[in-house]
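Quick one: structure for this chain?
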Amino acid sequence: MERFPRNNRIQEFNLDLGYGGIGNSLISEYKIAENTGCCELGTLVSKLENVISISFMLERNDINSEGAAGLVRNFGKLNSLKALCLNLARNQISVQGAEALAFALGKVPNLTRLVLNLSEHRIGYGCAKYISQSLSYLVNLEYLDLNLWRNYIGYDGAACISDSLPELHNLAYLKLNLGHNSIGKEACDHIFNAISQLTNLQEIELRFHDSNFIDDQNAENIALCIRKLKNLHRIGITLAENEITSKGTEVISQAIKSFEKLDEVTFDLDLHLLKVDAFSEDKTTLVSYQRL
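Got it. Here's what it folds into:
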């Protein structure tokens, strides 16, 4: 009898094994072949012929590159897949694992929603390089949540991301976490210039906090980007622990105030951490806000 029989009835598959030890540490303890857990999940997925949505919450499981590759190896068989959430934060994935993930993502071009968390792997430039390449195939995306926090992607990695973003013309929601990546001032400008081309965006949540060396000049480009995105109704920006002063804060604040209507604004620029509900009629004063 087949271990995992085919199933054409399941349309949504959610699995939360965060901090569960399905990777190398637990496997080695019980003398099971390395990465068996991830490979078994990869086999199971291939049997879900009509699945539309998959969510794997696998944070901190000692998963290495081989395990990550085994997990996603059959994604290309999922022709009905529209929504994918992969939380692989705090594992042991190297650049080879990032390449395998990217290759698999490129085989599911019908995705409209992607959540990918590879935070705290310290993979380097290669992480952004391969993930960016996969994004060029996902032109149907309407929702993208990409978390590469603390991967040290640097200028080159950020440049790769800025090259791929403009291809995603259908994006309505973008959440991008590049905190603690030392991307630098020039790369920051490249990314915000790329984002400004996504004119269908309705919501943005951008986290560039912590050691990215962003300054007041960058703030001016960020403000310009915001002004170009006429369809925004929710804005979230985190730039704390950089080099922005009150001057940069004011420039971004004025850009936000230029909108006729915003449902919600949250911004953290070291000097201000506010959740804004409304501006005055002349849009010069915050009418309703919650200090966080």
